[in-house]
Amino acid sequence: MEWTLPTDVQAEAVPLILGGGDVLMAAETGSGKTGAFCLPILQIVWETLKDIQEGKTSKVILQTATEWTLSFFDRTDALAVTPDGLRCQSRDHKDWHGCRATKGVHTKGAYYYEAIVTDEGLCRVGWSTQGARLDLGTDRLGFGYGGTGKKSNAKQFDDYGDAYGKNDVIGCLLNFNNGEIRYTKNGEDLGIAFKLDQSRKSDCYFPAVVLKNAEMSFNFGATPFKYTPPKDYVALCNAPKECVKVNVISSVQSTDSKPGKQRSSSYHH
Fold first, then answer.
1. The whole model's pTM is what?
2. Which residue ranges does the record assign to the B30.2/SPRY domain (predicted)?
């Protein structure tokens, strides 16, 4: 077909397809090249997800799944995750779409991760339990900080910090020792956002995000942070094993696309 490099629409679509996202593409030419480029990838992705569902997971996938990444399965259907699990995107202009990480922390310690806004849009990041809605901050089990300069929990949105947007780096901090959740913006501490109830300190909290026509990337500590975490905080990837739990949501029951409806399953990363 005398082509070697992907077109713009192909370059945009392929990472989303590999991440399991639902993609609708439109190109001017109509020559069929985009279809020829993407259909084999779709077939491979479908076969791979089927193997995961049937327990035929490859060593490579198992290795990826044991790392701190965004979950390919604990997400709403219109949110796509890149193959490395460190970037997500939703192009829905109307509704919010969310995702949680493959692992969470509990009981003790103080933890930090960074979320970087990589494209314009609305976003909210923070922490949630396994039982929280994927629409972060709309129930009592999710705690978010949004780009409009609001913190949210249980559908209560209060002024907090500053508005943020493209290229801003949001540090998300969780301290079980004092029950505090706080955030930083480009290295500046914004203060305490939430205090966990004593009864909630034993819960496991996962990094979480919800987007509306936006894109964010994440660093859980496998590579150097943009900004040094505050004293006594450690990267999530350095959390003690006894304080880490895996996300148990699988592909088997991930057909519900509504934000935040819990998907229960037995899949283990």
1. 0.74
2. 48-225
